[in-house]
Amino acid sequence: MIRYGLRQLSFPRDQDGKSFVLGDPQFGKQIGSNGPQWVFLCWGILFALVSLGGMLFGLSLGKVYVAVVVLIACPVPIVFGLYYAWMATKRQRLFERGVKVGSHSLLFDEIDHFTYFSVEEYVNHIYTYSTTTLKFIPKESSDKPKLKVIWGAFFKSRTGVERFLDCISQYMAARQSEQLNNDGKLAWANGISFVDEGLQYENRSNVTQVARYEDLEVKQTKGLMGNRITIKDRKTRTTVGKLNASTPNFFAYMILLEELRNRNVATAAAP
Known about the structure:
Blueprint: E1 30-34, H1 38-60, H2 64-73, H3 75-88, E2 92-95, E3 98-101, E4 104-107, E5 111-123, E6 126-138, E7 147-154, H4 159-183, E8 185-187, E9 193-195, E10 198-202, E11 208-212, E12 216-223, E13 226-233, E14 238-244, H5 250-269
Helix pairs in contact: 1-2, 1-3, 4-5
C-alpha cells in the first residue's frame, strides 16, 4: 500500500522561503487587490457637495431655473459617490494563505471548498478581457459567511489571481492528501473517488472499477462553460469520468491526481 504524505507535496513559500503548515493563522503576503480606489470615492463626494451647494446657491439668489438644472444633475454624482462608498467596503484582497472581501475574511484552513469560473472576451478573434469568479464556502464548523470574488483583467494580466489559485489549490491538495492517508478513500465528483491504488469509478454497467494512477490519461478541452477534462484508463480504454473546471476544488484535485500518478509511475519504474 502506498501512503501519501504532506511533505511529498509542494507548498507555497513565504518571504523567508519557509513552507507554511496547515492551520497557520497568518494570511501571508498579499498577492493581489481588486477594487475601486478611494480617490473615486472622494471625487464622488466632492461632486455631490458641489451640486448640493449649487442648488442651494441658486435658490438663495431666487434663480429657480438654476436650482432646477442643478437638482436634475445632482443625483448623478450623489449616486456615483454612494456607489463607490459601498464598493470600497467590498474591496477584494488575495493572500498566500487566505482571502478578504471587505470586512470579511477566510483563511484556507477555514474553507471547505471553492469553485472557479472564468469567461474570456474576444473582439475580432483578439483576446481583450477576462472575468474570473471565485466562490469560497466555509466549513460547517465555521460561523463565517460565504465569500465571492469577481476578478476582471485586461489582456491576460491575471498574474495575481493565477498565483492565488495556485496557492489555495496546493493547500487544498495537501489537506486532501492527508484525508486520503487517514481514510484510505477520498470522494471527488461524478461518482469518482481516490483510493490507494487509483481512481475508483462505475462503468456503464454500474460495475465498480479502479483505474490505476499510472494508467490514467487526462485530456483537456475548452468550451463555452470553461475548461473540461476527460479522464481515461489507457489499459481498458474506458472513460473514468468527465469534469468541468467549475467542480468544487477542481484544481486541488488535479494537483493531487498528478502527484499520485507521477509517484506511481516512479515506483513502477524503480528497480
